[in-house]
Amino acid sequence: EVRLLESGGGSVQPGGSLRLTCATSGFTFTNFAMGWVRQAPGKGLEWVSGVSGSASTTSYAESVKGRFTISRDNSQNTVSLQMNTLRAEDTAVYYCAKDAGDSGNYFTYWGQGIQVTVSS
Amino acid sequence: DIQMTQSPSSLSASVGDRVTITCRASQSISSYLNWYQQKPGKAPKLLIYIASALQRGVSSRFSGSGSGTDFTLTITSLQPEDFATYYCQQSFSTPLTFGGGTKVEIK
To answer: What residue of A is the nearest CA neighbor of B101?
Structure first.
């Protein structure tokens, strides 16, 4: 059974940092790209970032480029999102998602989501 | 960036109705279009990928069609568990983008 479990969310002041981690199990981790998708309160889905199975390729939404960094540890089957210089508009539920393949760019499994709140 | 526009943004329907949701891309995306269902407080669930392929385990009430810029999600014989918000997503190029969502409510 595929499982994705996010951790590391919480409340932070504007300008602060958080690191989200997604622990995975139930599939051959290195065979699949992973991504992060967020959803602001009452809003739709927004893709944030993705990383290939080998970690050789990363991509970001323009709204987070230069502030967020995605990484993965293929020995631990985890993917992380380091979020720096956080803004109020980064407040959202963040979902970790498993790609259909190494570059399918659509998501077959999702974590339950974790709340990030940026507020003074 | 490729913009995805869904219509309608919401609709009211009754159990047993046939429902159609449309999604338009700002440029051709071939068949790289996916559909998700999201219920309140839950993660999205993949329904349809590559425009018309039914994800394993998803009811055959759901079907997708289209290519290029215009796509459709159809739900035949709407069931109580189908009341949710539906999103399209293009997988043609990064940044990946989603439509604004269509909320299907009970009439």
So the answer is: A44
